[in-house]
Amino acid sequence: MVTTTSSADEHMHNIQTVRRKVEHELKLNISVAELSPLHQQRLLYIPRMPPLLRGAFRVAFGDRTSAAYDVEEIEKRFPKLFGQPVVKIVPNSGGPVTIGKKLRIGVVLSGGPAPGGHNVISGLFDHLQERNKDSELIGFVNGPSGIIDCNYHILTSESIDPFRNQGGFHLLGSGRTKIETVEQFAMAREAAKKCELDGLVFVGGDDTNTNAMLLAEDFKAYNIDTKVIGVPKTIDGDLRNTYIETSFGFDTAVKVYSELVANLGYDASSAKKSYHFCRLMGRSASHITLETALQTHPNMAVIGEEVEANRQSLLSVVSDIADLVVERSKLGKDFGVVIIPEGLVEFMPDMNKLISCLNDHLASNGSSSNDPTEAVKMLDNQERELFNSLPTDFQTQLLLDRDPHGNVRLSQTESERLLITMTKSELKKRSEYKGTFSAISHFFGYEGRCSLPTNFDCNYCYALGHTSAALIEAGCTGYVATVSNLTTLPEQWECGGYPLTVMMNMERRKGKMVPVIKKALISLEDPAFKIYAKQREAWRLTEDYRCPGPIQHSGNMSEELNFTLVANSEMSN
Amino acid sequence: MVTTTSSADEHMHNIQTVRRKVEHELKLNISVAELSPLHQQRLLYIPRMPPLLRGAFRVAFGDRTSAAYDVEEIEKRFPKLFGQPVVKIVPNSGGPVTIGKKLRIGVVLSGGPAPGGHNVISGLFDHLQERNKDSELIGFVNGPSGIIDCNYHILTSESIDPFRNQGGFHLLGSGRTKIETVEQFAMAREAAKKCELDGLVFVGGDDTNTNAMLLAEDFKAYNIDTKVIGVPKTIDGDLRNTYIETSFGFDTAVKVYSELVANLGYDASSAKKSYHFCRLMGRSASHITLETALQTHPNMAVIGEEVEANRQSLLSVVSDIADLVVERSKLGKDFGVVIIPEGLVEFMPDMNKLISCLNDHLASNGSSSNDPTEAVKMLDNQERELFNSLPTDFQTQLLLDRDPHGNVRLSQTESERLLITMTKSELKKRSEYKGTFSAISHFFGYEGRCSLPTNFDCNYCYALGHTSAALIEAGCTGYVATVSNLTTLPEQWECGGYPLTVMMNMERRKGKMVPVIKKALISLEDPAFKIYAKQREAWRLTEDYRCPGPIQHSGNMSEELNFTLVANSEMSN
């Protein structure tokens, strides 16, 4: 999976890189004395990207588009912008490098942080500066609420340089506010006018990009001349489709988790006395768990989408785990590694039903009710039985950890501990089992959201930043910036934009049908899943743990692509 | 802290390295197709070490030694071996490279795994092979119980090569059995005779090295001609003294944890809504927490030894944390990072007393008692009040999670959750506090014990392996192998051995006074602590998080030493 290039190309690339590195170092606007050596080194990294983004390009418009599903309804919701053409950035062969327009662009980071966000910003900034020194980049603070409150900074080299190729979203901060109400839309229009924005870039997941599309339509309807562009971010990897090859941050985050899970495999096989149960982030989709499985070869990985496809109950999953423990124990192995996705219980039909009944009852009780056990009394027999069969800790979590809407806060429920407790009980019923079951629980999520981005995420995000600015200059609005052909060299990547409407469908949210971007769940037909399904049997009873190691930021090892991206690209080719 | 060398030296070193790398690759006895690229690359890494270990050396004996404390008593316990001289491996200038004796050496890995263990083994193996092709290395399986059961493999290139520079202890497995009873000592003597061992190398922490010394004395007393050598291992960093500059594994493990803690710092300052409370391994000593603090600059680090020195109660530590939260909240910052050592509650005089009372009562109840709450009834008023003030979860953990001796299993108690719960309560009492306290708990420990060792740990362990074999060939027994001068280039490291008795004192264990190696706790006078104490005030209210990043295995970044090692070496110079 290491990308290669011809030596002549490589030579040219190296010369250009060295030259730019020296220029870059000279202009770096920060004191580096207090930074860690790797932090300093990463500040000097020059992201690789298609050379055409550096000026000699033009924007080509393709055919009119449609929507993924519910075409009529989507068209009705977006009368102004539905059906816009695909946009591609192409070489302006023979034409001169033109000076760009003077632009004022706003950027906002939305939702959970993901490695690479700062490079979207530096990409935007550099593109604007390279095209026209008088352009300005405005950073809205703490997520979309920064737009509503008109809370922003004008970004300069001084403010951006210390964040080049660094993890986190802390240059601007992030937030989860959405622009939803009539008042909020009005305030966003005011902000766009007040800040004289030519464009506004939303960096976020499926919800944020949906929100960007709604705002683009709203601006158009009110004749606000601010173009709105989305950038696909999420470590979960579920913002991906025919148009978006991967969301940024996934590559880095899975590699952080994979290193840790692999270490736990070796820990299990060294100490030989414990199972490590690891829950990994990814609530709606199990891409992180699947990629981590391919990277590390755990004894068992539970994939939510497969559990759902097979309509497996909680007890059935527990029984599978107990089978593994019993079989390994027969070989004298009372240790191993099991990984599960954060959203696992939501994929189980029985638990899903229980949770949605609880949510309904909790909601109907209203937040004024202090006694959530009332909701349990209102359950049907079947659900009440399931609820009563759960360990007390977990019952408490289901009832007490509720989000601001009153819903069960599943991301906080410790399903890895639930599985450990229930596996223990299940093993007591297995008369053939003579082993000792000791298990240690782990949750890996927050650790990977702000880590130093891989070279892939640095390059990808930097190109996304450039592309977003180019789309705005070309007058595009209601588009997601795309960089594709990602399994080739960054110099060969293709850049452009797809109308956000092409990836939308209608879904029920809070009781209403609304247009949203369809989340990409794992399909059992996905090449990545098939590769896993073919190998997993071999991992069950052996210790075929694979050691990807920590992310390397220089040398050959720094150019490794993740399995999911490569497998998916093979599917589309 | 990057070590440097003159360019001529570097050039020579490079030529030698390249030449050896090619030889090494040709002789590598494994199929690498299924391994990750970094795994493959690390297999080819040639550890750096003092060139004199490659043959042109002799062993020099120094002055007679004594013990750290309780000299008379230690001498009485080790009548045969007390007072042996310090041993140094020195260049055999002018002398020929002699062919070594044909030796048969056993090696055993003991206790929790630590990065680098496999390089002790490859160092031992290569040393034996380089000195005499007919020598044999025997690996005892699953810890010291492998000796008692005479369960071993003869190690060959085929078995060792796939583990070079790799993390984990899984080549042999580890275990926590000690050789303690009269029968176990007799069985160990039998094993030594049956396997015709010239030497036996114990890779382990303070307890294991104490055990090695007892066995050395026993073998001597029974005229068993097997030399016993200890190798200082522990990620906790508490096996360290005038003679041992650091234990192996600490360097790698702290760097794994530091990357994660730093990521959480950026996560906190990006999302701006949560505190991350991280408990870090290190039960008896807080070196890991201190080093992680120096690497990452958290808003607060609680150092167990300081809590003990100041005789801080649980409530007092909670109050300190609440002060931090209140002060940050006044600045609009309801987020941050707090790190604590695994063994924190044991350093609090009130909690320590409570736990030891509970242990006494639980022990006097015997394991037959099914009702641990009886032990609570037997507490004095003051302890019972403290117990009752603890959150219910934590009460349950204290009573139910008990080790095989019936003692409270503190490593499993989630003190980070205890502090979160109690901080929440404390904040309710602070009328000036208007913020929102949301906290996420983490425990980092197992993730770092088996990770790919840093170049430092690879080199250090490889040199320790060579040194151990050299000591055995020179007829030394009851020594710890030492490699010192560690902040210089590996080529300039000094190798030798210290009699294990020099670092012993008498301590009460299970009601009896026994000779043990004194654990190295943090002293408030340690340079590393002083550096931290001087800086920490600046970290409280800012987000001066430092990003060490993931461990890099090649390039300049791979040669970074940890702060604790450098600071301590400055103390001794």
From TrEMBL, chains A, B:
Subunit annotation: Homodimer or monomer.
Domain of life: Eukaryota
Activity regulation as described: Non-allosteric.
Source species of the chain: Rhodosorus marinus
Cofactor list: Mg(2+)
Molecular function as annotated in GO: 6-phosphofructokinase activity; ATP binding; diphosphate-fructose-6-phosphate 1-phosphotransferase activity; metal ion binding
EC number per UniProt: 2.7.1.90
Binding site for Mg(2+): D206
Record site feature (Important for catalytic activity and substrate specificity), residues: D207
Cellular location(s): Cytoplasm
Reaction it catalyzes: beta-D-fructose 6-phosphate + diphosphate = beta-D-fructose 1,6-bisphosphate + phosphate + H(+)
UniProt function note: Catalyzes the phosphorylation of D-fructose 6-phosphate, the first committing step of glycolysis. Uses inorganic phosphate (PPi) as phosphoryl donor instead of ATP like common ATP-dependent phosphofructokinases (ATP-PFKs), which renders the reaction reversible, and can thus function both in glycolysis and gluconeogenesis. Consistently, PPi-PFK can replace the enzymes of both the forward (ATP-PFK) and reverse (fructose-bisphosphatase (FBPase)) reactions.
Active-site positions on this chain: D236
Positions annotated to bind substrate: T234, I235, D236, M281, G282, R283, E342, Y446, E447, G448, R449
Site feature Important for catalytic activity, where: K233
Family classification: Belongs to the phosphofructokinase type A (PFKA) family. PPi-dependent PFK group II subfamily. Clade 'Long' sub-subfamily.
Residues the entry annotates as binding diphosphate: G112
GO cellular component: cytosol
Annotated ranges, domain Phosphofructokinase: 104-350
Protein name from the UniProt record: Pyrophosphate--fructose 6-phosphate 1-phosphotransferase
Single GO biological process annotation from the record: fructose 6-phosphate metabolic process
